[in-house]
Amino acid sequence: MKKTIALVTGGFTGESVISLKSAAVVARLLDPERYEVFTIFVYPGRWYYETEGQQYPVNLNDFSLDLPSGKVTFDGVFNCLHGSPGEDGKLAGYFELIDMPYTTCDVLTSAITMNKAFTKAIVEPIPELYVAKSVRLQRGDAQAAARVLAELRLPVFVKPNSGGSSIGMSKVKEEAALEEALLRAFQEDSEVLVEEFVSGREFSIGMYKAKGQVHVLPATEIVSSKEFFDFEAKYVAGVTEEITPGRMSTEEVARVKRIAAAVYEALGCRGAVRMDYFLRHEDGKCFFIELNTVPGQTETSLISQQVRAAGMEVRDFYTLLIEAMWE
User: Fold this and answer.
1) Which residues of the sequence carry a binding annotation for Mg(2+) 1 (predicted)?
2) 238 and 279 part of one domain
């Protein structure tokens, strides 16, 4: 008997456009022999299912739909909602309250990993993993730029502490550009994280748990024509070269797999997540950048590339993620 799956997309932030693209791919690839899929759009004050131009609101008392054909209830949720509320724990909290299984990390892990500074503090003790020196700033701090210049060396990355898709992020190489970069980041979040630049090769690696075991996918090497892997580099074709599997030595592959699995466990992750990292040029040390708990699932997304590089079909990968909800 088919399971009924709610595919959740939309969102409250600028990442909603990517969420919609991810959901369209997932909807097309989910196994129709196993699952009946309803795409649920979540926007501020509007949760609905749409078919034939008609919108049907979600009953939030039990997360159901009242359709002309009858009431629809769900066996589980495939979360494809990047940013808030799908990635910061809000949606997870709602699903926990109504006892609805879902594919992504729980409330605590989602909330913590959305905060880059908190995440770094948790992963910093992991053997063989390093974090760049950083400063966390609050909106309204008149001394923010002075603190950065006093505590860090340029160049630095300025980023919203809880943002995603590199929205509001800047690389600052000169003092004169710092104030503008801080202003841009504070437009996205009330907290900003400023990190010293690490010169290295950039990679991203996916991990997931299925049948009680953490699996680490082949890493993707990011070779961008931009200063860094910003929104344009991530989502505009031709700006970035993505090499999967990434060019790493046998030792580096083994070391990064150990680190990635340890990060997954230390943060209490569930489902599929993606860790971004640098291998520093001078010594090959692995520097943590951030963890994405609802990674993109577009046709060209890094996770999809890595799944195929591991010899799997993306459809089978999605089946593993869904079935893991009931393990």
Assistant:
1) 276, 290
2) yes
